[in-house]
Amino acid sequence: MPAQILAMDSAQKDKPEKFLVIGPSWVGDMVMAQVLFRRLKANFDDCSISVLAPDWTRPLLERMPEVEDSIASTTQRGQLGLGARRTLGLSLREQEFTTAYVLPNSFKSALIPFHARIPRRIAWRGEFRGLLLTDSRVLKKDIYPLMVQRFAALAEPAGSKPPTEILDPRLSIDPETLSSTRNKFQLSIENRILAICPGAEFGTSKQWPAKHFASSCKSLIADGWRVWIFGSANDEAMAASILQEMNDAEQQACENLCGKTSLAEAIDLLSLTDVVISNDSGLMHIAAALDIPVVALYGSTSPDFTPPRAEKVKLLSTNIECRPCFKRECPLGHQKCLQDLEPELAISAVNELREEKQSRDLV
């Protein structure tokens, strides 16, 4: 270890750890990053955690009790921004962070803590960034198959055995903010609420067909459910396609929230729902972190790496030979992995999760 780092370690050994985490840029990945935050809090008394990430992540981080501060990144996703990263790193020196954890796998993501001269800089090895790190670890994917395992393991000394117990992501909800948000959208919670999340920023190869979402909703509405549709402005067309498959009475049982809520509002409103049907998306991971029962639909991707971390989950997929391909668009043009995933499977899964939740609540 360089003498400079040893000297800084000696000077700071009696001070509480002050961590900087370079966070991911995807919603789902940021949700799963909370396993690292929770493990750091469990391992280090009186530590503080700051997270550097895109500004849109603030609603997530504000609902993670372990995070004291969020620092907005000044660069766009996919942008090298060498000058901006150096400037930001220099501005962080005065905060005297003791350790940095770099969660993205890119070279550029390690530049800011390097320029900030943070004494310990820890990450999995990748993109020739070893010179920027003080602790560059070789990832053995067979030992750490899940993303949450890889994140949690960084909180342990290099060479430690894989963590056997991982505290799942759990977002906290402020009751007053929740009440205000529900009143803003004038939403009733007297009926059972089904949330559907039909979008997927990754690409259409993750999107269950609109007719399948509509068929599931129609059946559950007939059983007394109401449906809330969640998504960004990019999902408005998909939501419209789902609603077009319904008659007027069925549409009256739906609340289309796509493009109408902020991320913060979507998180709060999701916490009020009874079951969620979702593509493999960021909203799926948010629902899981709220401990809402989740029916997760997998097309081109697989739950083997980033499954939802809820207590009650039903994972639905088909077994055709070409999946998982992990492509943004179906390379064969038929999207059979999702077309063949019948609505009856989702309807059955929703009813099973609802019954399990009722049984659990009675205990």
Summarize the structure in short:
By secondary structure, the chain is α/β, with parallel strands linked by helices. The chain is built from 15 helices and twelve strands. Helix 9 (210-222) links the parallel strand 7 and strand 8 (225-229).
CATH topology of the largest domain: Rossmann fold
**CATH class category of the largest domain:** Alpha Beta
The fraction of residues in strands falls at 5-15%
Mean pLDDT: 92
User: Architecture of the largest domain, according to CATH?
Assistant: 3-Layer(aba) Sandwich
Uncertain segments: 1-12
Total count of domains: 2
Q: What's the number of extended β-strand segments?
A: 12
Helix % is 25-40%
In CATH terms, the superfamily of the largest domain is Glycogen Phosphorylase B
Encode the helix/strand succession as letters.
HEHHEHEHEHEEHHEHEHHEHEHEEHH
Task: Output the number of helix runs.
Answer: 15
